[in-house]
Specification:
435 residues; 5-stranded mixed β-sheet; 7-stranded mixed β-sheet; binds glycyl-adenosine-5'-phosphate; 2 domains; 23 strands; 13 helices
Amino acid sequence: MNPDLETIVNLAKKRGFVFQSSEIYGGLRSAYDYGPLGVELLRNVKEEWWRTMVRQRDDIVGIDSAVIQSPQVWVASGHVAGFSDPLVECQVCHNRFRPDKLDDPHECPECGSKDSFTEPREFQLMFRTNMGPVESEENTVYLRPETAQGIFINFENVQRTARKRLPFGIAQIGKSFRNEITPEKFIFRTREFEQMEMEYFCRPDESDRWFDYWVEERKRWYIELGLREENLQFREHDADELSHYAARTYDIDYRFPWGWDELEGIANRTDFDLKAHAEYSGEDLSYFDPETEERFIPHVVEPAAGANRATLAFLLDAYHEEEVRGEKRTVLRLDTRLSPIKVAVLPLSKKDVLTEVVDEIADLLRPLWAIEVDVTQSIGRRYRRQDEIGTPYAVTVDFDTLDDNEVTVRDRDTMDQDRIPISKLIEYLTERLPS
Ligand code: GAP
């Protein structure tokens, strides 16, 4: 059974994964801060994406572009003209709503006024600010609403310096900002979020093949990292659902507690973006194919994922409650690559003789994995805490350790315990944990 959202929100807060932002000031709606465990989990999600998409391939390179770019970028990309939602305003309380999200189109959900709405008006979703000290139209810049455009505007720079031939990709992970009208559902839809995007440039006649290829690759990534297939749904968009830049789009949806919703979109963006940037910048963004001696604008297949949404899905999917000897056990069965802490080191009691050995073991393991030393509370409670935060292995030091130099290693999922000589501990864990 999948948990409800409240269960995960509570666990996230209680254990230090995710906190409401600005909590001491009453909280800022739709903004979240990642705590000590959350930041590790989120980093591991991004690290796994980067490893599979960039490090393990020789056809993809990475970049890290600026959040604030020339405002012309957003004119060329179509965002200035078209990245907006229609909104109606209540003339009594002045709150604004998306008409398609209203339960009753005649009643304001905020103040209850009847038929107080204006006609819908377009509302720009990009955050606007000023570059430099003068607030003026000419100094208006935007916070990027997607990482993709930073890639397109660097296409020529990267292709030339990385000496890449088609097909090749450019990947980027970074923050994006959208002034969403209805931020909702914890970290699923927020106004500040992180994207993991890759633009794969190819010959126009090969874009369909690469589209199918990337759909399969991306499905595999989620499944290999532990999402259950029954909680995933794959769906190609109908022609009338496509965004202005896409010839084809495929969604990877997850069964969130409120229903199926998007984790990632894979789009065939054709030559839309490079062509637009070539036109607006006046630069030649075509590619010369030395084999066929043709010059053309490459087409682009884009897998675009959200790091925060993926993190939420991994948390939900890993969450299990079970009964062990008449007691409820909560366990996060996270893939070991994602677990925030890989090994917990626990003395059976707080006695100094044990904590000395614990410190030695911690020093031994710390260079290799994220570890946590926990000396508080009973051993049973500490195991329960480690299960709840998804720590795959717990190493316990007891009084026998002082005589036999052995420790007990407990497996999170099976709860089986092995007695291992300290000298063999690294070897034992290396076989079971990612390096
Ligand atoms: N470059 C294409 C693009 O940005 P998108 O479908 O708008 O496409 C890609 O965004 C992914 O970014 C989404 O599938 C989602 O995972 C994530 N995302 C988009 N808006 C988000 C938001 N407000 N909060 C959290 N994640 C978001």
